[in-house]
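Title: Prediction job returns without error message
Component: structure pipeline
Severity: low
Priority: P3
Assignee: unassigned

Description:
Job completed but the reporter wants confirmation the result is attached to the right record. Sequence as submitted:
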Amino acid sequence: MKFVKFNSASRAGFVFAAAALAASATFAGGTHGGGHDESPIGEAGVAENVTRTIEVDAADSMRFTPSNVSVKKGETIRFVIKNSGKVPHEFSLGTEKELKEHYEVMKKNPGMEHEEANKISLKPGKQGEVIWRFTKPGVVNFACLHVGHYEAGMKGQVKVAAK
């Protein structure tokens, strides 16, 4: 049996090639299951395409105001969320299933904070925004997923009309 000794450059090249191969296999799989994996709630919006701004208050009464919003398919909405309370809140857009699944994660990690396209965490007295484009008619839910807030009723809906 013959052993081949690799020098540092060969080892680095081999590691790079292995990493590239693993990455290409990961990306080749993509999110396709026979078609594009489009989110049922829409997609991150672009500030220049905002058609409307909706101000939302997140209060310690465990309510959003407004809790029901109506938009049209294709609209890009800037949600400006203000935490008027004395405890942290968040605004998270998703399907009911996604919100419940993430709530279970939040229960295990209560200090988790978000600043993603469809969600934002806000400390007391702070304000932030979520820009979202609604691409399908139906209902998109939103909620505060801090432990206890969701169960207390801190949730709402965006009703997306076909046009």
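Comment from assignee: result matches the submitted record. The chain has a mean pLDDT of 81.
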